Known about the structure:
The structure holds three protein chains of three kinds.
Chain A: H1 2-15, H2 20-35, H3 40-51, H4 58-71, H5 74-86, H6 92-105, H7 111-128, H8 133-144, H9 154-163, H10 167-193, H11 206-231, H12 237-255, H13 261-294, H14 297-304, H15 312-329, H16 332-349, H17 354-368, H18 376-385, H19 389-412, H20 415-425
Helix pairs in contact in A: 1-2, 2-13, 3-13, 4-12, 4-13, 5-6, 5-11, 6-7, 6-8, 6-10, 7-8, 7-18, 8-18, 8-19, 9-16, 9-17, 10-17, 10-19, 10-20, 11-12, 13-16, 14-16, 15-16, 15-17, 16-17, 17-19
Chain B: E1 7-11, H1 19-34, E2 40-44, H2 52-61, E3 66-70, H3 71-74, H4 93-100, H5 103-110, E4 117-127, E5 129-132, E6 147-150, H6 154-162, E7 166-169, H7 175-180, E8 186-189, H8 191-196, E9 205-208, E10 213-221, H9 222-227, H10 230-264, E11 268-271, H11 274-292, H12 297-310
Parallel strand pairs in B: 1-2, 1-3, 6-7, 6-8, 9-11
Antiparallel strand pairs in B: 3-10, 4-10, 5-8, 5-9
Helix pairs in contact in B: 1-10, 6-11
Chain C: H1 2-37, H2 44-65, H3 81-112, H4 126-151, H5 169-181, H6 185-191
Helix pairs in contact in C: 1-2, 2-4, 3-4
The site of one sodium ion has 9 residues of chain A, from loops.
Amino acid sequence: MTIAIFVGSLLGAMTIGMPIAYALLISGIALMLYVDVFDAQIVAQNVINGADSFPLMAVPFFMLAGEIMNTGGLSKRIVNVALAAVGHVKGGLGYVAILAACVLSALSGSAIADAAALAALLVPMMTQAGHDKARAGGLIAASGIIGPIIPPSIGFVIFGVIANVSITKLFLAGLVPGLLIGVGLAVAWWWEVRKETLVTPPRKSAADLLGALREGVWALVLPLIIIFGLKFGVFTPTESAVVAAVYSLFVAVFVYRELKITELYAVFVTAAKTTAVVMFLVAAAIVSAYVLTISEVALTLVDLLQPFMGNQTLLLLAMMILVVIVGTAMDMTPTILILTPILMPVVKEAGIDPVYFGVLFIVNNAIGLITPPVGTVLNVVAGVARIDMEDLMKAVWPFMIAQLVVLGLMIVFPQLVTWPARLIGG
Amino acid sequence: GIASAETIRVSYVTAADHPYGLGVKKFGEIVEAKTGGRIRVRGFPSGQIGAEVPSISAAQGGILEVVVTSTAAVSGVDKAFGVFDLPYIFESDRQADAILDGPLGTAMLHRLDGKGLTGLCFWEAGFHQVTNSRRPIKSLDDLRGLKIRTIQNPVMIDAVNALGANAVPLPYTEVYTGLETKAIDGQTGTYPLVYANKIFEVQKYIAEANLFYAPVAVLMSKKFYDSLSPADQAIMRDACTEARTTEREANRALSPEALKQMKAAGLESTVLDAATIAAFKEKLRPVVDKHMKGIDPEVVATLQAELAKLGPSGSASGK
Amino acid sequence: MTRLIEGYFSLLKILIAIFLAVMVVLVFGNVVLRYAFDSGITVSEELSRWLFVWLTFLGAIVALREHGHLGVDTVVKRLPRKGKLACLIVSQVLMLYATVLFFQGSWVQTLINWQVTAPASGASVAWLYGVGLVFSISTGLIILDGLRRAVMGDLSDDQLVIVKESEEQEQLEQLQHELAARDGRDVLVRAEPSRGTDR
Ligand code: NA
Ligand code: NA
């Protein structure tokens, strides 16, 4: 019943067009009334303390880094390197998109920023080369969601904070699954374009490739700084985010000279506003999480899932189907916020490695970014590349299926995630 | 509703199987038995419903019934509680118990009456030892230059710096990762906590320095306390005192056991000798003097009088 | 009056940009100090966290006014005008109720924490809970104004939907704006494969 009150009031409030953050507050208040702990201080205390977190400060810093990379020309140079390297093979621009998405992912924490940059740069080139525009957009949308899987990742930060799991371990464990998603996409792309008639650009000369590399090296070393910095403990995840922001600021202003000091104010305001939207949502979710905790609803849910407890694969499959369903209708951050407190007790009870679960959960949430009706990354790509939304929804299917197949493989063969995670994360 | 007015929620930051948790469990058993089940007690471990400082604030506001918290977190509410943060204030379990359970302890708890809190009694986290990943600590020199994590507390920061190490104030959530990745070299903590929080997995050495003694305050929301009958109020106080024995005994039994387990896992242990402890105290004297000044002189005077009354104690047994 | 209101929201934007910049300096400064000088700024962590809290709530005020908060408009946008209006009014009344509770709770907690000091800085913890008062008064007025206009029938059709479905629609809009401003020139240069790097 407690869960029904929570979900009912939340969905009700969202349906009438209330911002999700406020809908979460309303469902928290409804829960307080039902559980009979009504007090205004519970609202204020949980909301304000919910935002008061050092690990979550990674959010504004990654937002800032993403803003600076797009405005300051770092993203563009990464695409140029990928272009010089694989642009000439059949359908090569598609592989460029996937490769560039993987590298961009290692710089930024969000799928949306990555997809926007790639769509602006690559869709016009791909159409020129003879690709179907919607198919090109579909691939780029699907590539963009590698952003929150390969570290750094705002999704992992929020999950790690709520679930109390090491963010560093999550980051390092996301690296290989992100690359696997990239491989899955490359296979799907190869299959999709095998019958297209294309104008393939000529192979770049070694000098051109070197030139692109020389220009791009400033942007390309950042992923290495972040991953090695985390791995060898030079800094914590929050600090890695601030290092990414400061480094890209340095490169954008002093090396590429594409970010004028006068543009800085706008960059900071945009990053701060986006942060506020995400963080207010996080903070608002803490109210209902608090009431759900004191009402011990988790125990009932664990009881409910008891029949699956004996079979981890089946249990994971059931949970992942739930995430896919919720992910169709909701954006990544709210899905993480709402489902983490409900699912984690089950994960612990069943003895599933929380880092492994976290990776599956975030991959699944990322896929939710390209599932209609609420597919944020689809909206972004449609908007930037001016593709009709319905065409894009149809074109993204094959790529989404490839990603779900990779996710399925990771459920059936946990070693795909856990083995490299141990190797890299130690 | 589910959580009726007769439910006492207890917030604490350690795991449920840690001594705090055992104390809370015992407290609950006694309350439920003595009230014939009229009042239930439910513990919320691991900071599930809030960290220490917000939980104290919640108890003051009456939205939480009980918080089990380090006295360091209470010093924001009343600076005098900072007296327990001073290094080498207590040298043995016996001394700590005598003072915390005696007139000074009672007076300290009463100081919170005007702040919306009713202090029930003191439990313990115990003596803080020093861990690190660089070298075994046998003398003052061995600490030089080590980056030691402390809580964000001026006394502890000054103390660690005075010993020649570099205090790095870090939020608790960053400690394990910070140590694992060697962003920091070491930290201070009790044997049970170093064990329970798996700090020993990312450290090589532990030195028994008994640097601080950390008491734990069991604080009830005054709003809730005042709503109870005098008989129930007495039950609360008695239950806290009875559970105190359970909690302290569990903590003190766990310390050598935790050390044994950690040694078996490869942690190297040293015990500072009396001469080294004396050298530590010498270095720390200016820090103690400096921070004593910020504390209500009456509290300092009572503490010193009571310590003098107890006389010189034997060596610390708070392992 | 209008100028006063516009000035207030400009001030909020300036503040959140400054807070973010100071957070960067504090946290990055701490990393540098740790490696270069084996030390740290004692108040870095506490101060940056508090700035973060203020950034969150001041930014959320701006987002509410600009209809920037995330939501699902799938159902609402298919409704006729009357249905949209009804949904909007119910939403805003409930939001106002949540805001009133937030205000009351923040008020009590601000008073409780007036004399409580923060461990590192020694500042009053009322500064932390005080953000709840600023937030709830500001957003309360925004919601009241929205309600007034909804009841007076003073809203165009697209003003009846107050949420966005994407976290970064704002950035998207800015990006489109930039692309338009560059007149497609830069995009074309970059889109020309044979040129390689363009600078
Ligand atoms: Na990423
Ligand atoms: Na979706």
